[in-house]
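Input record (Table S2, row 212):
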Amino acid sequence: FFSKPRDFSLPNSSWGPEMMRLYEHYNSQCEAETEGGGKQKGPWRRIPSYNRSLKRKTSFFCVCFSGGVYLSKLIQSKARLFTRSIKEAGAAFEYVLFDNSDAQKCVGILQAGHLLEGPPGFVHGGAIATMIDTVTGAHAAVLSGPVMTANLNINYRSPIPLGSTVLLESSLDKTEGRKTFVSCQVTSSDGATLHTEATALFVSISVRKILD
Ligand SMILES: CCCCCCCCCCCC(=O)SCCNC(=O)CCNC(=O)[C@H](O)C(C)(C)COP(=O)(O)OP(=O)(O)OC[C@H]1O[C@@H](n2cnc3c(N)ncnc32)[C@H](O)[C@@H]1OP(=O)(O)O
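Output record (dodecyl-COA complex):
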């Protein structure tokens, strides 16, 4: 439990040239050079990704529920984050998320592996929805703290070839009380083809309520 968990958002040998190109494009903007040649924070931030959201929230859970029933119940569970549950690298969801808090944007770079097939040679619509939920959900969580998806509205415009790399771009539309509204576009890695458009509503929740 206390060993360092694997961060799945870092490159692995299954990542192809387009995945690496986009990763390097955003990763290079996570740090900027100062006039004196030093380093400072850039506009983008890579969001680490583990195979359980609990791992990311370990310190939070320790503070809120130290020694409590919730923590032991969750740790003993075999639950895994859906998108990180397939062990073979490159077989399913290979992705990394970057957040730009000034621009209120979040991007996801996805390389869709062979286990995500829907129509022959193309990515399953449910897998696309999963990735839209992941990118917009992470974005809403960065903006508003703990949230649940209340509504996801998707228009599929053109199929995504299996094995290809696509870019998911999430933008904040508005917040209203507990509600965070975001939009998302999925395009080919060069931006030339629009694959999917979506809007999503996230509602802020109390973590204690979920665990109860
Ligand atoms: C960095 C991290 C990485 C993490 C990376 C991983 C990210 C993964 C993200 C995955 C996220 C998920 O899949 S979450 C799993 C899928 N989602 C779910 O299972 C959610 C199931 N639904 C629920 O639990 C509930 O309905 C909630 C929590 C959404 C809302 O319930 P509630 O808390 O009682 O709130 P409620 O009073 O009903 O609604 C609050 C306000 O929202 C509005 N509202 C509620 N639902 C809707 C709706 N479907 N469409 C329109 N509006 C709605 C209400 O009218 C109200 O507006 P007003 O009167 O205030 O104006």
